[in-house]
Design brief:
The protein has a single domain, classed as Rossmann fold, CATH 3.40.50.150. It has six helices and seven strands, in the order ααβαβαββαβαββ. The chain has a seven-stranded mixed sheet with strand order 3-2-1-4-5-7-6. It is globular. The mean pLDDT is about 90.
């Protein structure tokens, strides 16, 4: 597995959304945060499993998992344009250096993810995701649906949530048969993307959670 700094450097070449949708909260996962999550997952041995990236967007987390050694990676995304960019990113970032993982892309709604439940896998996967935080009025509790799918298909999950989510994530995991086994604080630096943003850059505090299901 590459060093976290080297992984972040390679992930900086991953292109972001051409025309992000505010209702879907399409903010790209920053390279440093993607490297942080995937490096932590690797240290825990979670990349020895197949990896499923829910709401992969333009593929940064999925590509990170492939670089870091996951045997197979599946990125699921509802936005067809984002999937096109993800495929282009795969060719640009993975083809210039041998990455041990094989990456596949699937267009689909992660809340009804068209993949088998956990018990149907020979080796149940590790799920990774940077779900919408539910900041938009029509998207409240969007991360709940991602966690629900993660608990249905995964043996373990790594997800990113807004700061202050510990009680919610812990309660949700316990209510659905899971256990939070690690939590980390981090930050996302966001450039101005949408017209309603009132600053050129802003920093959002976030939390990473590892859940065993």
């Amino acid at each position: 597995m590459p060093a976290r700094r080297d992984l972040a450097r390679r992930l900086a070449a991953v292109a972001d959304f051409d025309d992000p949708d505010p209702e879907r909260e399409q903010y790209a996962t920053p390279p440093d945060l993607a490297a942080h999550l995937v490096h932590r997952a690797g240290l825990r041995g979670d990349l020895a499993r197949p990896v499923v990236d829910l709401g992969t967007g333009t593929g940064r987390l999925a590509i990170a998992a492939a670089i870091a050694g996951a045997p197979t990676v599946l990125g699921i995304e509802v936005d067809a344009d984002a999937i096109t960019i993800a495929r282009e990113n795969e060719r640009a970032v993975l083809d210039d250096a041998a990455a041990p993982g094989h990456v596949y892309w699937l267009r689909g709604d992660v809340t009804v993810a068209p993949v088998p439940d956990r018990d149907a896998w020979a080796t149940p996967p590790t799920v990774i995701a940077n779900p919408p935080f539910g900041a938009q009025a029509g998207n409240r509790h969007a991360d709940r649906a991602f966690l629900d799918t993660a608990g249905r298909i995964g043996a373990v999950s790594w997800t990113i949530h807004n700061a202050g989510s510990r009680a919610f994530v812990t309660s949700f995991a316990e209510d659905t048969g899971g256990t939070v086994t690690a939590a980390y604080a981090s930050e996302i630096g966001l450039d101005r993307v949408f017209e309603f943003h009132d600053a050129d850059t802003r920093t959002i505090e976030v939390e990473l959670y590892r859940i065993e299901w």
